[in-house]
Amino acid sequence: MARDLALAHLTTITLSPPEMIRVAARTGFQAVGLRLIRVTPTSPGYPLMDDPASMRATRSALRETGRRVHDIEFVKIEPGLDVSSLESFCAAGAALGASRIIAAPYDPDLGRLADRYAALCALAAGYGLGVVLEFFPWTVVPGLADALEIRRRAGAPANGGVLVDALHFYRSGSRLADLDGQDASVLPFLHLCDGPARGGDTLQERLLEARAERLAPGDGALALRALIEKMPVGIPISLEVPMDRMTAECGVEAVARHVHQATIHLLGSLDGSSRPFAPNSTPTS
Question: Which UniProt key words apply to this protein (predicted)?
Answer without folding.
Answer: Isomerase
